[in-house]
Amino acid sequence: MSQQGYVAAPPYSQAQPGMGGYQGGFGAGAAQPLYGHYGGPPQTFNGPPTGMMKAPAPAAAGMPPPAAPSQYNPNVQQNGAHPQRYPPPAAPASYGQPVQSQYNNMAPAAPPPAQQLTNQMSTMNLGSYASGPMQSPPPSNKLCCPAAFPTSTPSSNGPADDATRTTAPQWQAPQWQAPQWPHHQWEAPPCQAWVDPFPAPFLQAPEVSSSLVLDLLVQLDTPSKQVSLGETWQGLTLPGSAGGLAGPPQKKLDPDSIPSTTQVIEDDQAKRGGQVYITNIRGQVPPLVTTEFPIQDQGNASPRFIRCTTYSLPCTADLAKQCQVPLAAIIKPFASVPKNETPLYVVNHGETGPIRCNRCKAYMCPYMQFIDGGRRFQCGFCNCVNEVPAFYFQHLDHMGRRVDFYERPELSLGSYEFAATLDYCKNNKVQNPPAYLFMIDVSYNNVKSGLVKLICDELKTLLDNLPCEDGSESSAIKVGFVTYNKVLHFYNVKSALAQPQMMVVSDTAEMFVPLLDGFLVNYQDSRAVIYNLLDQIPDMFADSNESETVFVPVIQAGVEAFKAAECSGKLFIFHSSMPTAEAPGKLKNRDDKKLVNTDKEKTLFQPQKGVYEQLSKECVAQGCCVDLFLFPSQYVDVATMADVPSHTGGSVYKYNNFQVETDGEHFLTDLRKDVQKSIGFDAIMRVRTSTGFRATEFFGAIHMNNTTDIEMAAVDCDKALTVEFKHDDTLSEETGALMQCALLYTTINGQRRLRIHNLSLNCSLQLSELYKSCETDSLINFFAKSACRAILNQPVKNVREILVNQTAHMLSCYRKNCATPSAASQLILPDAMKVFPVYMNSLMKSAPLVGSTELSTDDRAHQRLSIMAMGVEDTQLLLYPRLTPLHNLDVGSEALPAPVRCSEERLSESGMFLLENGQSMFLWLGLGSPPDIVQSLFNVPSLAHLQGNMSALPELDNPLSAKVRSIISGLMEKRPNSMKLQIVRQKDKPEMLFRQFLVEDKSLHGGASYMDFLCYVHREIRLLLT
C-alpha cells in the first residue's frame, strides 16, 4: 500500500501515536545484547525538555502476579509500594515513527549542486553528518506500509492512587489489525488543498501514513537551472540576496488552503487533551507540547523531561543521511511536575550507592534484564552481565521479572532519583547548602532612576520566599550582599550585630573577599540586620556621582566567596552599563551596523575572549551560577557580558531604557520567578545510549571540558539541553534504541543526588516510519539552536541558505520515497511535519537570523543566547506567537477563545486581539473597537482618549475587565519569563513593533511570508527531484 494514504486538508488530522506494535512490558525475557559507549566514573547530566516513551524487551503476553514485599527489599518503606504497571510485553514490531536522519548541511542551490552541497556541509557545524548529495533510496519494498500492525495499547485507566493499590492486576494486551484502506488518488485542480471524501476509517484507527498534498503553481515550467536562494520568485523577495525571475504572474493559493498551526494545535488538544498519557510503550509519540494532558510514568521518562525529533530512529547511517531529519533529544531534567502528578521518588541504597553496570556505568533502570534466578542482571545498554549485590537480591516470578518490580522505582519507572554517596561529592566531603549573593550596581544612573531603591524594597519580602525542600519550614540557602560601582562594598550582616558593617575593596585587579564570618548568613537569623542594610543602601549612595562600573571583579568576588564558604550558589547581578572602569574585563564599544549582512557579521555575536572565557571555567568549577539583570540605555555588548551566565546555567534579563513606573513590575515579576524557581547546583550530566548510536553534539547554557560530560554550575526548571545523536553501527528493529540521561547535582539543602531519565525509541528500516514519528516542535528547537550556534562561525546569510536547503531536502526525500507519484505541481508534506515550513520561515525571520540594521545588536545577541537554553514549548511559542481574539469573549466561560492564525488578515477593525510569544505581549485594538468594550477595559469613552504608554489594564469592577486581566495574568503565570504588556492602537506608530510578530506575513525587516516561503520551498524540492 502506498505511503500517501489520503490527501489531508483543513482540520489537518495529526498522526496518532498508538500505532504499530510496541513491546508492552519491561524486563521480561532475554533482550538482545546491546553495547554501551561510555565507561568511567559516575557522571551526570541535566536534561531539559519533555519526554518520550521507551519499549521493553520482548516477552510473552500476560502480567506477572502481584508483587509481594520481601525481606530483601530494605526500601519498601522508604519509597512506598509503587504499583505502576506495564502492559505485557508483546512481540516487538516497528512502530510508525520517523527515522532520525543525520543532519546534512545543504549548499546553496547552484551548479554543480553535488559539489556545492559537499562544500557547504563541510563548513557548517550544524550537525555531524556526512556530506554529499542525497542518495537514492533502497528498493521500494522498504517504502511500503505493512497491512497490519500488531500493537500493545496503553491502559486507559487514569492514574490510580499509589497508596491504595497494593497489587498489580493482570493486564491483557489487545491485538488489533489495521484495515487495509483504499488508496485514493486525485487529479487536484490548481491551487487547492484536498481532503479525502471517505475519511471514515481514519476516525478510529491510526493512519498507516498520511500526507498533505497542496497544488502549487501548476503553470510553472520545470527550471533548467538551479536558482540561488536570494533570487525572487513570483515577484517576491525570498531569504537571501535580492534578484528577480522573469515569468508570467502565477495564480495565488487561498491562505486557508495551506496548513494552519492553530488548527493542528486545536485538533491535537481536542483529540488527546485531558487523556492520561501512559509511558509504557516504546517509541510512542506524545501529544503536542501545546496540549494539556496528565502523564503516568510506567517505564519511560515523561515528555515533560524528554522530547525527541523523531521516535523511530533509522536503523542505518545511510538511511539517516538520506532523509536528513536530525536525530536529537531535548532534555529538560528539572522540568516542573504538576501538582496532580507524583513527584520523583528518591531511592536510597545507603552506603553502597546506586547499582550500576560494571562496564558502561549505566544506572539500574527498567531496561536491565535479571537472569540466573535473579542473581545476575544483563545491562540493556552494553549487554554486560553483572552480579546482583546480596542486599539487592530478589527472586524472579514465572515471567522472569523480580517480584518486587512494582516496589522499586528504578525497575518500574522512567524517571527517579538516587541518593548519592560521598564518592559522588566534591573532595569526598558532605556538601554545604548553596548561597545566593545579591550584587547591586549603585552607579549614578541606577540610583537616580529609583532602581536601587526598588531592588532593596523588594528583597525585604522576596527573601521570605527562598526555595526550600518539600517538608522544610525554612530555606537552607544562605544570603549575602554586595554593592559596587568601580569599587566593591561587602556587608557584614551577622545576626549578633546591631548595625550592618561595610568593607570596601578598591583593588579590583586582585579580587578577594575581605570577610568570611557574617558575609553569608541565614536570612531568618539575620533578618533585622538585613532589613537595616536594605533601608540604608539607597540613602548611602543617593549623592554618588560615580558613573563608571566594573563587571568581571564582581563575578570573581562571588566565586571567591563561595570558595571560602565551600559551597555552590548563584549570583544575582543588577547592572546597567558597559564596564568601562580600569579593571579586568573592561569593554569597548564594538557595535558596527556596517558588518550586518557581511562575512564579518558573526563577530557581533562572538564574545570577547580572554578573561571572560577563563571566568566561565572558574564559575563552573565552583558551582557558581550567574543571573544577569541588565538595564541598558545604550549598547553594552551583551554578547560578551552574557557569556558567563550562558555557560553557567544562568539567565539574562534585559530591560531597555528602564523606568520604574512602566517597567518596575515587569522586572520584579522576573526577579521573583528567578529566585523562587526549583533548581539544582554544581551539576554534571551524561547521556548514555545503547549500542549503534551515541550523543555527539550538545546545545544549551552549558560548559563542556570533554566530549561527554555536560557541566552546569546550576540547572533550573526552565533550562533545556538539546542533544544530537549519530550512528556508529546498525540499530535493530527488534531491540530499539535506549537512552539514559543521568544528572548529578546538589539540592538546595546540600544533598548530593542523581536524577535519572530513561527513554526507549523504535528503530525502523522504513523512512515512512521515521516521518510518521517526527515531532515538528522538537525539530524546530533543534534547528533554532543549531542555527544560533552556527552564526558564531559563518555568515548569517549562509546559515539561512542551509536551513532552507535542509527543509527542502527533508521534504523532497519524503516525496521521493514515501508518497505516491503525483503531478510535479503538487507539494506533498508528511502529516507530522505539515506545519514545519511556517516554523522554519519564522525562525529565519527571528532577530538573530534576519540580518537587519534596524534591530539592535544587543537585542539580537540576547535572543540568540535565550534560544540556546529554551525547551520545546518555549521555541514553539517564540516562533509561532499566540494571537487570541478578545472582542467576542464569553465572560461566563472558563474556556479561552481559540487562537487565530498569526497574520494581519485575521485582524479586524472592530476587534481586540492579545498576542504573546513568551517574551513580549501586546493588546491590539482596532480603530472600530466598540465604545462599550473600551469603556469596560480602560474607563475612557473612546480609543482617542487612551494614553499612549499604558503598560497595564486598570482594575475596573466589571466582568469583562476581570476576565481579560485574568487571561493576561494566567498567561504570565505559565511562562518562564514575565512579559511587559504593550497596548497598541491600530495605525499608531507602536503598531509596527506588533506587526513583527505576525509571522505568517512578510517581515518588516526582510523575510518572506509563509505562503511565499512554501512556494519557494516547493520550487527547491522540485529542483532536487529533477
UniProtKB/TrEMBL annotation:
GO terms for molecular function: SNARE binding; zinc ion binding. One of its GO terms (biological process) is intracellular protein transport. GO terms for cellular component: COPII vesicle coat; cytosol; endoplasmic reticulum exit site; endoplasmic reticulum membrane. Residues 896-967 form the Gelsolin-like domain. It comes from Champsocephalus esox. PANTHER family: PROTEIN TRANSPORT PROTEIN SEC24D, SEC24-RELATED PROTEIN. Its main location: cytoplasm. Pfam families: Gelsolin, Sec23_BS, Sec23_helical, Sec23_trunk, zf-Sec23_Sec24. It comes from the Eukaryota. Belongs to the SEC23/SEC24 family. SEC24 subfamily. InterPro entries: ADF-H/Gelsolin-like_dom_sf (IPR029006), Beta-sandwich_Sec23_24 (IPR012990), Gelsolin-like_dom (IPR007123), Gelsolin-like_dom_sf (IPR036180), Sec23/24_helical_dom (IPR006900), Sec23/24_helical_dom_sf (IPR036175), Sec23/24_trunk_dom (IPR006896), SEC23_SEC24_subfamily (IPR050550). Residues 70-81 have a biased composition (Polar residues). Residues 47-62 have a biased composition (Low complexity). Residues 432-675 form the Sec23/Sec24 trunk domain. This is Protein transport protein Sec24D. The keyword rRNA processing does not apply.
